[in-house]
Amino acid sequence: MRFLFLLGLLSVLLFGETTLKIAEYNVQNLFDLVRSGSEYEEYIPNTRANWNKKNYAIKLQHTARVIKDLHADIVALEEVESVRALKDLRRTLQGEGVYYRYYAIADAKPTAVKVAVLSRVPFVYKKEVWVSRSIEYRNILELKYKMDGEVFYLFVNHWKSKSGPESRRIYSAKVLKRRLEEIGYDKNIVITGDFNSDYEEYLKFKHRYTLNDTNGKTGINHVLDTLNATQSAKKVHLLSKELYNLWYDLPKEQRWNYIHNKKKETLDSIIVSKPVLERGGFDYVYGSFGVLRRPYLFYKKNINRWYIRYSRKGGRHMGKGYSDHFPVYALFRIE
To answer: What does the pLDDT look like over 270-323, one tens digit per residue?
Structure first.
């Protein structure tokens, strides 16, 4: 371990660059054990649903195991109920020898679940981008970082699920876009999150009439302008306001991190601005985008999701499983 550390330090000294790993993970409903009134029914603590101290501890341990295996410097999270749950996860990780000194959560609004970040490196500021006053929309978390003289912005999103039509996701996308315009597309921007959208949502939802209430327009493709940049990161050339979805830097058969009705999907993404793809400064490392798919994260041919057994009496936690999403990650280089 000491040799690897010295080797990494030597590479920084010789080549003048630092490597940063950013990951994104929807942890599937990490609720604490304090009754706040906004919990989903099966997560009201100490009821027939069996969401209790024992199962909470198992959930924390399982989530920590995945994050430990990611080895990321910054982990963007979705579906964290509270700062208490985030701190408990951080404490569980510390017990596994994984220490994230810095953390943030978008908790200004009492939504049932929220977005959050665990970070090994300090950020300059944290703010929340308000999508709407309604609890139907989750706030977007914005962090500004400065490392080795390079500045970059990180956004963590969790858009409306497909229980609602595309207009709900477009609403969040437009708010995010306005904030990007304020910062400027000439800045280093990394956008993460569970967008509840495929990286090619405009093709996938076209004939799903319960979703397509926008005449074929999508938040992730049309509003964020990821429609035309479909080559690998090394070959793609973005226009000034175009964004690039890192899923295109993976072979097509590997582009999935979620399974619904036996179909593989990509609900989560990492999206970057034009300067992040250019050489010099804060750069995406070509070919580094990936999905963590460890054997323990599978159950037969499905994702080993956190398991709740449902009956006429409601849901009951069985203390098994991890999340219904696989984490995604990418490497960035600071010269």
So the answer is: 999 999 998 779 999 999 999 999 999 999 989 999 999 999 889 999 999 999
Answer yes or no: is 299 within a domain: yes
Q: Give domain status of residue 6, yes or no.
A: no
Cβ 100 vs Cβ 90: under 8 Å: yes
Find the domain containing 330 and state its range. 19-334
CA distance 240 to 273: 9
- Are 140 and 172 spatial neighbours (Cβ–Cβ below 8 Å)? yes
Strand-pairing partners, residue 299, are 302
Q: Shortest CA distance to 308 belongs to which of 81, 47, 117?
A: 47
Query: What is the CB-side half-sphere exposure of residue 253 using CA atoms within 13 A?
Result: 0
Number of domains making up the chain? 1
pTM given for the model: 0.94
Q: Is residue 8 included in any domain, yes or no? A: no
Contact by Cβ (8 Å): 272, 243: yes
The SS3 of residue 58 is helix
Assess if residue 5 is contained within a domain. Answer: no
CATH, residue 103: 3.60.10.10
Distance CA 37, CA 56 (A): 18
Task: Give the separation between CA 224 and CA 203, rounded to whole angstroms.
Answer: 16
Cβ atoms 136, 162 nearer than 8 A? no
d(CA 176, CA 221): 13
Helix axes 83-95, 53-70, angle to 10 degrees: 60
Mean pLDDT, residues 65-71 taken together: 98
